[in-house]
Specification:
seven-stranded mixed beta sheet; about 50% helix; elongated
Length: about 250
């Protein structure tokens, strides 16, 4: 039994180390707040944790036997490790493809733009033109202004992108610096009680949290911050457009 526990402990430690490195790198680079919440990755991480921290070490505990030939034991552990590796590669790939690339103000709301939200044709064109806000594999999340193109050519590109499943926040050739959108952003700020993105109960909770943080919920100083989960509330300085806080209703 002691042999089984040693094998289990060693496998658990190795699995936890590898998983921590992978998730830690993705979190610190791309998924820190509010990316982790808005991107809705909570369905992928439990799968990784379940396979790598629970199922793998548990199977090692079951098959470990001090009387078993070492070659046979190594083979069995290798099979388990291979399954873990496949699950890790799958999960890490999903997290990588869905990593937050931009936090965009589109003219009416804030939203997270993940890797698979970007139109690949527009992204390639932005890189070919060497645009400063073009997405690269090494790009960390950036705050941008992503309005819908107003010229005829841009409108046609938008219609084409929509047929491919991408909206203007995925059209990298039209991305503008964050500062360019501040005049529009300040004009679009609303009171939390007037935001249709939240339920009545959520608006009450957010108003209470605004007061607790020192913000006046009766001032037009907020915008919804959307993603793949319930929206957050972004609170701004109405005069400068400086982001002051990001609040969660649930």
């Amino acid at each position: 039994m002691l042999f089984r526990f040693k094998a289990f402990g060693g496998h658990l430690l190795a699995s936890a180390t590898v998983l921590s490195v992978v998730l830690g790198t993705l979190y610190l680079g791309w998924y820190h707040w509010p990316g982790w919440y808005l991107s809705g990755v909570t369905s992928v991480v439990p799968l990784l944790a379940g396979v790598d921290l629970a199922l793998g070490p548990l199977l090692t505990f079951v098959i470990a036997n001090a009387k078993k030939p070492r070659r046979e034991l190594a083979r069995d552990v290798s099979v388990i490790a291979a399954v873990q590796l496949i699950a890790l590669i799958y999960g890490a790939t999903q997290l990588w493809n869905g990593r937050p690339m931009y936090y965009a103000f589109s003219g009416k709301e804030l939203s997270v733009v993940q890797g698979y939200d970007l139109d690949p044709i527009e992204a390639a064109a932005a890189r070919d033109k060497d645009l400063p806000l073009a997405p690269h594999w090494y790009s960390l999340p950036r705050w941008i202004y992503a309005p819908a193109p107003e010229d005829a050519a841009g409108a046609e590109k938008t219609r084409t992108a929509l047929t491919r499943g991408f909206d203007p926040t995925g059209m990298a050739t039209y991305f503008q610096p964050w500062q360019a959108g501040l005049p529009t952003l300040r004009a679009r700020l609303v009171k939390v009680g007037d935001s249709g993105y939240f339920s009545y109960a959520e608006r009450k909770i957010l108003a209470e949290r605004m007061r607790a943080a020192g913000f006046d919920p009766e001032v037009a100083n907020a915008l919804p911050f959307t993603g793949r989960r319930r929206p957050l509330l972004a609170v701004f300085d109405p005069k400068s457009g400086t982001l002051l806080a990001i609040l969660q209703a649930n």
